[in-house]
Amino acid sequence: MAEAKTPAKKTKSTTRKPSSTKASNPVSNKEEAKSRFNAALDEAKAGAAALRAEAGERAGTYRESAKNRGSELMSEAKKHGADAKVKAGELANDGKTKVSDGLASLGKVMGDTATQVDEKFGEQYGDYARSASRSLQEASAKLDAKSIEDIGEDAREVVRKSPGLAVGIAAIAGFMLARMFRGGRD
Questions:
Q1: Contact between residue 130 and residue 109 where contact means Cβ atoms under 8 Å apart
Q2: Residue-wise over 81-105: b if at least 16 C-beta within 10 A, else e?
Q3: Residues 6 or more apart from 139 whose CB is under 8 A from it?
Q4: SS3 63
Q5: Please, are residues 137 and 108 in contact by the beta-carbon 8 Å criterion?
Q6: Quick one: which H or E segment has residue 126?
Q7: What is the reported pLDDT for 170?
Q8: DSSP of 132-182
Q9: What is the pLDDT of residues 96-113, one digit of tens each?
Q10: I need a labelling partner for 14 at 20 to 30 A (CA). Which of 5, 110, 148, 186 fits?
């Protein structure tokens, strides 16, 4: 049973014929490769130019956004600075009023007790108390009459004239403030 199969006959020849363009083929392949390479290079350049343009646009957008945000922050900072300046002025005026009132009160108390000082320690010490009372009340009146700017300028002038005294006063004031705040914690 097995039938033998016969191979099919080949009707065409499978052998290659030598081509007559074999000598021109390497040159045309080289030209084609150059052409494709140049096209790819041009396409890459165009892509890079497009990316550069897009990056420039994005950078411009980001730059404009940052500039706007910076302007917003600056205006907010200026507004807060102006608010702080107003608040500091109000606090300085309140402090000046309290100090002035305190000096006036202390002067009044010293003036009221001058007669008692006369009786206990002598008239000379009573006169010192009255003199101190007048000085405190005059200082209070001068303080009330001056603006905060004038007081600041006076303080700068004192520091310029005698910096050692200014440092000493600052040290004593710092010591007293430290004692006051430390005393509250003990």
A1: no
A2: eeeeeeeeeeeeeeebeeebeebbe
A3: 103
A4: helix
A5: yes
A6: helix 123-145
A7: 87
A8: HHHHHHHHHHHHHHS-HHHHHHHHHHHHHH-HHHHHHHHHHHHHHHHHHHH
A9: 888 888 888 888 888 888
A10: 5
